[in-house]
């Protein structure tokens, strides 16, 4: 069974995305509103939506733009935000999250999108889609507003795994570079390794080891290694891909979001302070909207799971229609670029499997 | 020799701060401009300034407000930003940083302020001032703009040590609570432990262990433990003190600063975009200045080293006159509150020295 066959197929073949309707903080209504918004903007997308059939049918019927473009697959159970990944793996077969991943596994859809529990989504994705050959720890990559010409950096891992040794960090560099090449159209991305200082002697032992591995691998791969970068460099034009472990990356991501949200709150308050500033705010409305669009976390919503046989986009748990639509847009772009296949080819050709082979360095430099 | 004796002493005794004039990115001119600004605002401060005598004498002479309030101690050498702490400890006796710490060690000054190399400053402070009895790893605490009534949270460690086990994290909680009580006047601060999720099963093993230790110690100490907090909670009104290891804390701090600086850059650009928005910016000038003052990292400049026999304030390496003046203000407040003595008393009474004593829990709960 292919996804196309299950659709009305009144037009050219569409890119099918598998969307978990449940598990987000705002429930299925926000998810359906989000995919409807994407459907209205982009006639090439179709959806398979997973969750309780009765409820979803009602929600989808209200959106005319989804008619004939949204198959519903019934799944009674929901993975809650506090569910333990291990339990979901054992008992989660009837959940909407499981069903959404299964559609990618079966080839019915190209990319899966979910707002649910990150740990459970990663655990299920690993078990059902399996890791790419040669990948030890998959990672979650996110896009980060930056001073780059392309307007975004890629940062990974932002929360797939709280651990990462030097070999994992090298793989993150490879996977992040591949994402930057295919997702941001950068033929030769600049890679930086996140640390507490840019001097080479600083930081943890595994970071020093990773520094040398990533530098060495740069000789035979299409990226430049800029060395250690600090938290303040993340939004800079020094670097396109920032590599770190999932604990640090997750804290950094949420800290940046928290900072942006505090500032925008203070900004609103500043503009309400006096009658004069209220007038100013009115005049500046367009400028402020433009800025808001640029830094709004909802508009860069969507972490991508890298290192699996299939692509999974994790949207924020608190995503509203705008957030869901932004995650869908990212999923569509990755599906279109054939990213999963390219990443698989790149990882298969990296030296990470041979990490203990002492002869590797001389071999690979001989191939230059 | 006391500091008062070495001054003109034309007035009531002043609080003497020891200031390292060298090692900052902007050189001694910025430091002298900063202390002059503080001197103009606060007649109760006097300074001992450390660095090359000839250069400093020239700079100080130009500031009339410093006349009779700034002793200069000659030190020829400078700790550079890329100096290794171990080398500074062995060969740094003639540096301005060493001299600045020595003045606190001798009792000539109450608090030391430096913009220099953080690692070297911490290493020298540990060797010369020594750790408080019962403290394993000293920490750097910073103030973080937040939605709290007091406008700031305390976060530690933001970079003294890249490692911290559960016992260190418990001590950070104690020290951070003491800082919040004395520096922010919060009789019962709320403490949170930084993690990648608020669920109790998440995160690294040492974080789970620290969670239980800090929760247990809350019973007999004057703080409330709110459990795990995430990066987004740092500027929230959920918590007054955020505890984390120095690697994570440093990345979070620099990431937040980088985010704030990106946003303010984009805000400036937004207001220059069209003639209308330029007019708006003019009208909103006061509001924007107020906001800028609130989130300007220079105005919350100054990390405090906690856990030593004496207080050291680390200013940003890139601090300008405003930044230095802000660090001096913090140093003055801490000197006035008798913070060092209070912290020492608090740490001495905590159960952390008895961390391996299994009978501790029943004993302390018996005393409740």
TrEMBL record, chains A, B:
Pathway linked to the protein: Lipid metabolism; phospholipid metabolism
Catalytic reaction list: a fatty acyl-[ACP] + phosphate = an acyl phosphate + holo-[ACP]
Main location: cytoplasm
GO cellular component: cytoplasm
EC number: 2.3.1.274
SUPFAM superfamilies tied to this protein: Isocitrate/Isopropylmalate dehydrogenase-like (SSF53659)
Biological process per Gene Ontology, one example term: phospholipid biosynthetic process
One GO molecular-function entry: phosphate:acyl-[acyl carrier protein] acyltransferase activity
UniProt family annotation: Belongs to the PlsX family.
Functional note: Catalyzes the reversible formation of acyl-phosphate (acyl-PO(4)) from acyl-[acyl-carrier-protein] (acyl-ACP). This enzyme utilizes acyl-ACP as fatty acyl donor, but not acyl-CoA.
This protein's name: Phosphate acyltransferase
Organism lineage string: Bacteria, Pseudomonadati, Pseudomonadota, Alphaproteobacteria, Rhodobacterales
């Amino acid at each position: 069974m292919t996804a196309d066959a299950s659709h009305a197929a009144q037009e050219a073949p569409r890119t099918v995305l598998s969307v978990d309707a449940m598990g987000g903080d705002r429930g299925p209504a926000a998810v359906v509103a989000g995919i409807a918004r994407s459907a209205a903007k982009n006639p090439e997308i179709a959806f398979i939506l997973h969750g309780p059939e009765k409820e979803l049918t009602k929600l989808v019927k209200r959106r005319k733009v989804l008619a004939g473009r949204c198959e519903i697959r019934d799944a009674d159970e929901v993975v809650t935000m506090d569910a333990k990944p291990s339990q979901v793996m054992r008992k989660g077969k009837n959940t909407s999250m499981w069903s959404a991943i299964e559609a990618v596994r079966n080839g019915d859809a190209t990319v899966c999108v979910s707002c649910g529990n990150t740990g459970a989504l990663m655990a299920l994705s690993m078990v059902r889609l399996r890791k790419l050959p040669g990948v030890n720890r998959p990672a979650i990559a996110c896009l980060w507003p930056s001073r780059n010409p392309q307007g975004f950096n890629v940062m990974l891992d932002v929360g797939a795994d709280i651990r990462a040794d030097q070999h994992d960090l090298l793989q993150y560099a490879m996977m992040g570079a591949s994402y930057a090449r295919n997702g941001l159209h950068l033929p030769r991305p600049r890679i930086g390794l996140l640390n507490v200082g840019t001097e080479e002697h600083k930081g943890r032992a595994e970071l020093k080891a990773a520094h040398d591995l990533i530098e060495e691998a740069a000789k035979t791969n299409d990226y430049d290694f800029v060395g250690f970068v600090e938290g303040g460099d993340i939004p800079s034009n020094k670097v396109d891909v920032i590599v770190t472990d999932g604990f640090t990356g997750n804290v950094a991501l949420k800290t940046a979001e928290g900072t942006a949200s505090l500032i925008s709150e203070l900004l609103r308050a500043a503009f309400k302070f006096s009658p004069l500033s209220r007038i100013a705010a009115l005049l500046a409305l367009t400028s402020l909207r433009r800025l808001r669009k640029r830094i709004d976390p909802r508009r860069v919503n969507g972490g991508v799971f890298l290192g699996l046989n299939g692509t999974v986009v994790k949207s924020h748990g608190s995503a509203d229609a705008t957030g869901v639509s932004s995650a869908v847009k990212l999923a569509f772009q990755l599906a279109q670029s054939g990213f999963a296949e390219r990443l698989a080819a790149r990882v298969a050709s990296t030296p990470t499997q041979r990490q203990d082979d002492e002869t590797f360095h001389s071999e690979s430099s001989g191939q230059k």
